[in-house]
């Protein structure tokens, strides 16, 4: 129910002339009357949305900002996806190329009938005389009048006889010349995986310290030695008895092919077996 507002107003009434008496009222009388007026709600002078309009329509502006932000994010996502796709394509191409190179290497080694890792190409046989040539069995590499086996398995120096016998005989290599040392030193550069991936040779002073003997019992020629700088040092860090066996090899190449190091004999290393080459009737080119 609407609220009533009470207003007070002056209402003047004139007394009528008393005709019977024939006299008039000397003055007018004032009577206060209470007038009730219903106050109706005042309609708003502002239309709906007029406030939003007066401030630049913030709802519409927010929607535009959201669209712009979303567009930027989509562009960034598309760029990231494109870059990732490009990198994946390059990686796939590299893997395909490496696989092709590996298959070519494997095929080459298979045709030469040597171990796949490492691959030792078989040199042309040397002909000591007309119609007769040096040759080696499969898995052995021929150089001059000798055959060499470069192992892929590691073992101790004292296991060398059994290991060489399993691969066709012989014993750890005995180096008899500068030419032979040069050949072996350069071959090991190709097959060593790292600086410590050295190979046992058949030299030891286990019977008497400082007296170096080859595996066949012959003494080391003191004019034909290839010790690396500071070797032999008989270091006792691995064992109190010191170092009585010799390994060789320098991954980056040794100065003047001096690549011999004494080492504790029970440390596993790869090894080089050696045996005389066989002669046979072969056509030499």
UniProtKB/TrEMBL annotation:
<feature type="domain" description="C-type lectin">
    <location>
        <begin position="143"/>
        <end position="274"/>
    </location>
</feature>
<feature type="compositionally biased region" description="Polar residues">
    <location>
        <begin position="41"/>
        <end position="53"/>
    </location>
</feature>
<keyword id="KW-0175">Coiled coil</keyword>
<protein>
    <submittedName>
        <fullName>CD209 antigen-like protein C</fullName>
    </submittedName>
</protein>
<feature type="transmembrane region" description="Helical">
    <location>
        <begin position="65"/>
        <end position="86"/>
    </location>
</feature>
<keyword id="KW-0472">Membrane</keyword>
<feature type="region of interest" description="Disordered">
    <location>
        <begin position="39"/>
        <end position="58"/>
    </location>
</feature>
<dbReference type="InterPro" id="IPR016186">
    <property type="entry name" value="C-type_lectin-like/link_sf"/>
</dbReference>
<keyword id="KW-0812">Transmembrane</keyword>
<dbReference type="GO" id="GO:0030246">
    <property type="term" value="F:carbohydrate binding"/>
</dbReference>
<keyword id="KW-1133">Transmembrane helix</keyword>
<dbReference type="InterPro" id="IPR001304">
    <property type="entry name" value="C-type_lectin-like"/>
</dbReference>
<feature type="coiled-coil region">
    <location>
        <begin position="88"/>
        <end position="115"/>
    </location>
</feature>
<dbReference type="Pfam" id="PF00059">
    <property type="entry name" value="Lectin_C"/>
</dbReference>
<keyword id="KW-0430">Lectin</keyword>
<dbReference type="InterPro" id="IPR050111">
    <property type="entry name" value="C-type_lectin/snaclec_domain"/>
</dbReference>
<dbReference type="InterPro" id="IPR016187">
    <property type="entry name" value="CTDL_fold"/>
</dbReference>
<dbReference type="InterPro" id="IPR033989">
    <property type="entry name" value="CD209-like_CTLD"/>
</dbReference>
